[in-house]
């Protein structure tokens, strides 16, 4: 018996011999994950969740009047200065030289953005006066959820859009900031949102690339701070949040690795051909 | 084949003689124009016919013989008539004879060089010569829908009408003239001896020349450079009165030109313009006399200021309502107050302006009312212009609201693209992804939020003022429609269709008369006049008509995007 159909053979057309499916290969390209690596990468998701949590808690405190805008502004200013110095110190100035961005350009954009926000803060404050509080809460929640979904966690997927996630976060912050009592509150809130949603992830990416151990420590500290802040607001929330964090950082990697073993991709000579050679040598 | 003989009804009682007319061989029909009586000299007849043929370009020839005998058929006369056939060679030679007072004539043809010896069937069609001569046959309007068969029919009829119409000179010779040839055909009742008509005809030539001179003077002044400077030319183009006056000036030029009308269409056009102008001026003078009696102008001027005040007050109330919570909608209070106060200040300015003008209103109206003697259309145009001037503040508000809204919509659409991380590629005319800087993103999102939340307020103001503006536009549009109607309706043609309906022919209809066995079929041809709808459609005067510029969908799209709308397009304006 020959594996051809263009010759008359005494066998029926659908006959197969014992070499059937000899060339079947299973899970040739399946990745093998290691638990520690996956847990390490899930730190990015944990960080974002904690950022959102910290932001909401801060807003809550400002709304309740327990946090003064000047205090928040001072704290944020100090921490951003620290972060700025750390950003350059971590890789010894190599990144700055590579991107070619001068300190003066950084200062200019900071000034522009601060002036703009300060100028528009009275408008921002009265923006949602006539809209009901429930609508504002719902909109902000949706926007923050969108921010988490579209954030660039390092995966190479089509849904990722860092622009969209940042814009959604800013939109949510403006919505929430318009509920605060005075325009100074609004200004400080928006500035704080900008720092925590735009500048903090940049610093963390760099830390993750350069000093993994430091990064792990910072993530854990940040998570604890967020939990602590949430606990002072609502204990039920804190418990739920803690369980969510544990689930994402410990449970999900375990599930991923377990389910990976159930993968069942088959490959064989019936696959589409992939050109592996570099054909540019045929170009004139 | 059937032979058709068209016989004029006025020759039914003529004495015996020979028939002259035109033979149309494609249709196998003979159109008889007149009867030449005995005695005559054949050579003279032939000379006369060739002269007529030269002048009218219609191939007139001797077609046959006609015998009208009061008593029984005379054998000798019939032989004589047959012999005539040999002198005037015509194939076929038609012989019609009438006995006594009977209605049934006998027709026969003499085929000299024919192949088939059998008798042809003859159909006798009577026609009214005067009516056919005066009428104008209109081709069918939708020629595209016609098959060849119907087009042939139309051209056949056209040939017959043409024959009769062009042979006018034949009908000019009188029966009582002392010439070598005695004819019987349709006779006019003599030239009108009315002195007034003659005088008018004599006086019309110098009157036309005077009018042409005056008109050239006026148009020379209008075209002078003085009136073309920028503010004035802009004003002239916006006022519809000037356009209407220019249009009427053109009409006057057409009717006062010295050239005679070449064809039927031009003649009808001139007549229509003349009658339309007359009716217009008559109605205008009527209006003027009504206005100036009992000091109605004064009353009108007195009520104008209170009406303007009332309109302004209503607008103020509307703005106060908008500044509150209109219809339960949630407006941004700060923006609301700003816009509301801005518009209120405008109304205040407008009211002061009107009050400043109030002492002069009566005098202005009085002089303006005098211009109604130029025609009702001019008066209506002036009315439309006055409405436009009085509602100028509504127009201003509409423009402010529309511009603000348009700006907002464009800003929002551009910032929405920034929100999703995309950009408009002007080169490729499409939306592309783009990586923005951090500060661009931030400021863009901030502006987007602000614009989004301020949208309901701006949109409401825009909606209210657009509705007001559309109302004014609709009123003006109706007035212009009326003006157009008076301008373009062909009054003269309609009156002609009423009084002398045979002048405008759409076709003919045939009535079957009494028949007798053995005698040819007799039909009476009557003219079918054109229907009123086709009359209006054919003879409409062209106007600078204003009709809607945009379709409904594009109008809605423009309204939605906040672009300024000018719904009526005038023919002279450039297209965007």
UniProtKB/TrEMBL annotation, chain A:
Its main location: membrane. It is found in: Membrane. GO terms for cellular component: glycosylphosphatidylinositol-N-acetylglucosaminyltransferase (GPI-GnT) complex. Pathway: Glycolipid biosynthesis; glycosylphosphatidylinositol-anchor biosynthesis. It holds the Pfam family GPI2. The chain crosses the membrane at residues 35-61, 67-87, 107-124, 136-155, 162-180, 186-203, 215-233, 239-257. It comes from the Eukaryota. It is a multi-pass membrane protein. One of its GO terms (biological process) is GPI anchor biosynthetic process. Keywords: GPI-anchor biosynthesis, Membrane, Transmembrane, Transmembrane helix. InterPro entries: Plno_GlcNAc_GPI2. This is Phosphatidylinositol glycan anchor biosynthesis class C. It comes from Athene cunicularia.
Automatic annotation (TrEMBL), chain B:
One of its GO terms (cellular component) is endoplasmic reticulum. Keywords: Membrane, Transmembrane, Transmembrane helix. It comes from the Eukaryota. The keyword Oxidoreductase does not apply. One of its GO terms (biological process) is GPI anchor biosynthetic process. The lineage of its organism: Eukaryota, Metazoa, Chordata, Craniata, Vertebrata. The keyword Cytoplasm does not apply. It comes from Athene cunicularia (Burrowing owl). Pfam families: Gpi1. The gene is PIGQ. This is Phosphatidylinositol glycan anchor biosynthesis class Q. The chain crosses the membrane at residues 203-222, 273-292, 338-357, 364-391, 397-419, 440-464, 470-495.
């Amino acid at each position: 018996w020959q594996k051809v159909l263009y010759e008359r053979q005494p066998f029926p057309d659908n006959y197969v011999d014992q070499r059937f499916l000899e060339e079947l290969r299973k899970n040739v390209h399946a990745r093998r994950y290691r638990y520690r690596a996956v847990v390490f990468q899930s730190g990015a998701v944990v960080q974002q969740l904690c950022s959102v949590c910290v932001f909401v808690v801060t807003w809550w405190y400002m709304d309740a009047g327990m946090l003064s805008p000047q205090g928040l502004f001072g704290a944020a200013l100090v921490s951003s200065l620290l972060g700025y110095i750390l950003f350059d110190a971590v890789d010894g100035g190599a990144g700055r030289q590579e991107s070619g961005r001068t300190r003066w350009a950084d200062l200019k954009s900071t000034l522009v953005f601060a002036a703009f926000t300060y100028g528009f803060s009275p408008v921002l404050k009265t923006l949602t006066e006539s809209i009901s509080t429930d609508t504002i809460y719902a909109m902000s929640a949706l926007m923050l959820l969108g921010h988490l979904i579209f954030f660039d966690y390092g995966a190479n997927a089509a849904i990722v859009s860092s622009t969209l996630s940042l814009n959604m976060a800013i939109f949510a912050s403006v919505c929430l900031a318009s509920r605060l009592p005075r325009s100074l509150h609004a200004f400080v809130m928006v500035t704080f949102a900008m720092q925590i949603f735009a500048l903090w992830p940049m610093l963390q990416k760099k830390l993750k690339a350069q000093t993994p151990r430091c990064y792990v420590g910072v993530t854990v500290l940040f998570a604890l701070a967020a939990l602590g802040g949430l606990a002072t607001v609502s204990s039920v929330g804190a418990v739920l949040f803690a369980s969510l964090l544990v689930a994402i950082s410990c449970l999900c990697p375990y599930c991923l690795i377990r389910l990976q073993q159930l993968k069942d991709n088959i490959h064989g000579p019936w696959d589409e051909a992939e050109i592996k050679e570099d054909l540019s040598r045929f170009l004139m | 084949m059937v032979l058709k003989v068209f016989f004029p009804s006025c020759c039914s009682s003529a004495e015996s003689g020979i028939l002259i007319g035109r033979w149309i061989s494609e249709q196998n029909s003979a159109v008889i124009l007149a009867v030449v009586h005995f005695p005559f000299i054949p050579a003279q007849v032939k000379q006369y016919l060739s002269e007529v043929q030269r002048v009218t370009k219609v191939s007139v020839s001797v077609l046959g013989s006609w015998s009208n005998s009061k008593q029984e058929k005379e054998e000798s006369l019939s032989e004589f008539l047959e012999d005539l056939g040999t002198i005037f060679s015509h194939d076929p030679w038609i012989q019609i004879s009438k006995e006594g007072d009977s209605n049934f004539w006998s027709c026969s043809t003499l085929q000299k060089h024919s192949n088939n010896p059998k008798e042809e069937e003859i159909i006798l069609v009577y026609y009214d010569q005067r009516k056919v001569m005066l009428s104008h046959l209109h081709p069918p309007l939708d020629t595209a829908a016609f098959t060849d068969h119907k087009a042939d029919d139309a051209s056949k009829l056209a040939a017959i009408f043409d024959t009769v119409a062009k042979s006018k000179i034949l009908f000019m010779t009188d029966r009582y003239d002392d010439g070598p040839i005695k004819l019987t055909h349709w006779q006019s009742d003599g030239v009108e001896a009315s002195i007034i008509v003659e005088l008018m005809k004599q006086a019309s030539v110098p009157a036309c020349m005077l009018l042409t001179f005056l008109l050239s003077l006026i148009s020379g002044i209008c075209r002078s450079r003085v009136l073309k400077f920028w503010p004035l030319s802009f004003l002239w183009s916006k006022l519809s009165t000037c356009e209407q006056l220019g249009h009427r000036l053109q009409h006057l030029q057409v009717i006062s030109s010295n050239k005679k009308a070449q064809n039927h269409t031009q003649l009808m056009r001139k007549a229509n313009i003349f009658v339309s102008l007359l009716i217009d001026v008559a109605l205008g003078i009527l209006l003027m006399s009504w206005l100036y009696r009992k000091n109605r102008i004064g009353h009108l001027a007195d009520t104008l200021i209170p009406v303007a005040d009332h309109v302004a007050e209503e607008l103020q109330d509307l703005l106060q309502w908008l500044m509150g919570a209109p219809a339960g909608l949630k407006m941004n209070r700060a923006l609301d107050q700003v816009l509301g106060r801005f518009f209120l200040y405008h109304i205040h300015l407008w009211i002061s302006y009107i009050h400043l003008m109030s002492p002069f209103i009566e005098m202005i109206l009085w002089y303006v009312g005098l211009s109604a003697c130029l025609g009702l259309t001019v008066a209506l145009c002036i009315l439309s212009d006055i409405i436009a001037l009085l509602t100028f503040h509504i127009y201003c508000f509409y423009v402010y609201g529309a511009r603000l809204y348009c700006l907002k919509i464009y800003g929002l659409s551009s910032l929405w693209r920034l929100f999703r991380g995309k950009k408009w590629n002007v080169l490729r005319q499409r939306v592309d992804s783009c990586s923005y800087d951090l500060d661009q993103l931030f400021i863009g999102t901030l502006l987007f939020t602000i614009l989004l939340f301020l949208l309901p307020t701006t949109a409401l103001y825009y909606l209210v003022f657009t509705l007001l503006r559309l109302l004014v536009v609709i009123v003006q549009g109706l007035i212009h429609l009326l003006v157009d109607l008076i301008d373009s309706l062909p009054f003269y043609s309609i009156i002609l269709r009423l009084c002398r309906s045979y002048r405008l022919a759409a076709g003919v209809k045939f009535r079957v008369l009494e028949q007798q066995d053995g005698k040819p079929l007799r039909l009476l041809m009557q003219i079918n006049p054109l229907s009123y709808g086709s009359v209006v459609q054919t003879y409409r005067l062209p106007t600078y008509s204003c009709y809607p510029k945009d379709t409904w969908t594009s109008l809605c799209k423009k309204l939605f995007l906040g672009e300024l709308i000018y719904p009526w397009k005038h023919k002279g304006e450039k297209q965007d």
